[in-house]
Specification:
Strand order of the largest sheet: 6-7-8-3-9-10
Largest sheet: 6 strands, mixed
Number of domains: 2
Number of helices: 21
CATH architecture of the largest domain: 3-Layer(aba) Sandwich
CATH class of the largest domain: Alpha Beta
CATH topology of the largest domain: Rossmann fold
Low-confidence stretches: none
Strand content: 25-35%
Shape: globular
Structural class: alpha/beta
CATH superfamily of the largest domain: P-loop containing nucleotide triphosphate hydrolases
């Protein structure tokens, strides 16, 4: 590796405008350097300043924030100097010399345009190459990133490719201008484990082939261990520890780094007593021969796109049933069917021994109350125009869970249940962290006094510390309220830690089912074994070893 310092950051200060109008420091005196061809990982929990620091390499601060001091140099360009010449350099820097790969590729692509047109747009607008040469280069990048049908995949629209493929296509877009530095901002966080492995392999191959320097933002130490050379641990905008990857993983010096590693380690949150008690519980939800999908139905009543095919499962009262599988396996479709958002094409669903109507229109208000769905992204389901108190008051009033004069006290109780202070009720969602918003999302479901809560990927977008806290909270509420959960996830470790029973879906079919203790102790279906083998281990070279095993 070259010893040339490509990126030099010193004494970086970033401030944000607080509620009272005064500026609050969110990045405090941060300094680091990146050598040419080196990958620096920025890790830490939500709000630690990872993305804020990474974006300063593009001379950018989010709305409400300001780069208040320090020096940011990229390849000899002073990014923060405000002279006219520096501004011209900054326009040349962004998207050309420093590229950005966002966490959510699906939110970054225009659904109305073909992929190839979006991938080559930047270099064509800048007149860096002709449209013909740009298309040729894009196909070469598609091939380097191990995308299927590299010659034709660009002719598709974003919705016609998988999430993992779209994430790699976004990386191709970033690499079109031969950038010196690429910022990867949590690019695999929301991907299932098997897709994550493919994307990590593709990123690592591209970094090595094109000799890219990179900043890799993540909260997942196991992922970082597969791609980084150097690691910087952040908390509240300050560096807690930095060093070579091996040193951080094998001999972390700072207590906070050790706490991050402890949060990432899979652990069982249920006791043997929980397991014994679960076996004695009667069925709460029973599904038999379920078929569901989308599009027009044929004469036999079958949908044009069949997503779930002959699904059978049982969820016992007071227990947690985990449903795992990769993207497209039908997990969320199953949640929508149970919640009444999608009518099944065939099959029988029984709730507390009685038939469960297929749609909300056929369910009464009480049945609507008894089954609640908590979505993956709280940002998309919490009304940004309302404060938390108003959001929580709505189900209390809709389902008549208390007298009107008791609503404030019930809101305070709900916030206490999810370990939030009563003062949160006066805030709007935009003023909360990711973990706080997910707790409010859960509190809203609890406001209905449900018997079953369907948790659809509720921790997949959260950092390991916050995600672990949410899992602990779910287990605590289960004990306190005798709650039942259908827990949908692509993360095998998460499912194993809180679920009594586990169902594995693959391409819409149930391919495996077992209790938690049998998951690792007995031979399983080949796809289940693949999921187990795809969970990254917190050590260097694990990715290379799995790649060699896959080829063997």
């Amino acid at each position: 590796m070259s010893t040339e310092r490509l990126v030099q950051v010193s004494n970086l200060q970033v401030v944000a405008c607080g509620e009272d109008g005064n500026e609050v420091p969110i990045v405090k005196d941060v300094s680091f350097s990146i050598q040419r061809g080196e990958v620096l990982a920025l890790i830490g929990e939500s709000g630690s300043g990872k993305t804020t620091i990474a974006l300063t390499l593009l001379g950018y601060a989010r709305r409400g924030c300001r780069i208040a001091g320090g020096h940011v140099g990229v390849g000899g360009t002073d990014v923060l100097t405000a002279s006219p010449a520096a501004l011209r350099d900054l326009r040349d820097l962004r998207g050309r010399r420093v590229a950005y790969v966002a966490q959510s590729a699906s939110a970054s692509f225009n659904p109305a345009l073909r992929i190839i047109d979006q991938v080559i747009e930047g270099v064509c607008v800048r007149r860096l190459m002709s449209r013909k040469d740009a298309r040729t280069k894009a196909v070469r990048l598609f091939r380097a990133l191990a995308l299927p049908s590299p010659d034709t995949i660009g002719e598709r629209y974003p919705h016609q490719v998988s999430g993992g493929q779209l994430q790699r296509l976004m990386a191709a877009m970033a690499l079109m201008s031969d950038p010196e530095v690429v910022v990867f901002d949590e690019p695999t966080t929301a991907l299932d484990v098997t897709t994550q492995i493919e994307v990590l392999r593709a990123f690592k191959r591209a970094i090595e082939e094109f000799h890219i320097s990179a900043v890799y933002v993540s909260h997942d130490l196991a992922v970082v261990a597969q791609i980084a050379d150097h690691v910087m641990v952040l908390r509240n905008g300050e560096i807690q520890e930095e060093g070579a990857l091996e040193q951080i993983i094998e001999a972390p010096a700072h207590p906070y780094t050790r706490s991050l590693m402890a949060a990432a380690e899979p652990s069982c949150r249920l006791t043997e007593a929980d397991a014994d008690q679960a076996l004695k519980q009667p069925p709460l939800l029973e599904i038999s021969d379920l078929v569901a999908g989308y599009g027009e139905h044929d004469r036999a009543g079958m949908p044009a796109v069949r997503v779930l095919d002959d699904i059978n499962l049982t969820l016992r009262r007071g227990t947690t049933l985990g449903v795992i599988g990769e993207s497209g396996s039908g997990k969320s479709t199953l949640a929508y069917v149970i919640a009444g958002l999608l009518a099944p094409a065939k099959g029988d669903i029984r709730f507390v021994g009685k038939p469960l109507p297929g749609t909300h229109a056929k369910r009464d208000r009480d049945l609507y109350r008894r089954i609640q769905l908590v979505f993956q992204s709280a940002d998309k389901v919490l009304n940004p125009a309302q404060d938390v108190g108003t959001i929580l008051a709505r189900p209390l009033r809709l389902f008549e869970r208390c007298a009107p004069n008791e609503v404030p006290a019930r809101i305070a109780r709900l916030l206490d249940l999810v370990k939030l202070p009563a003062s949160i009720a006066r805030r709007r969602p935009a003023e909360l962290s990711g973990g706080q918003k997910q707790r409010v999302n859960l509190a809203r479901a609890l406001a209905a006094d449900p018997e079953l809560i369907i948790c659809d990927e509720v921790t997949s977008a959260l950092d390991s510390v916050v995600g672990a806290a949410i899992l602990d909270l779910l287990v605590e509420l289960r004990h306190e309220l005798n709650m039942s959960y259908l827990f949908i996830s692509h993360d095998l470790s998460t499912v194993r830690s809180i679920c009594d029973d586990i169902v594995v879906l693959f391409k819409g079919q149930k391919v495996d089912a077992c209790n938690r203790s049998a998951l690792f102790s007995q031979p399983r279906h080949p796809y289940t074994s693949l999921l187990i083998d795809s969970v990254p281990e917190m050590r260097a070279n694990w990715l290379e070893e799995t790649t060699l095993r896959a080829k063997a």
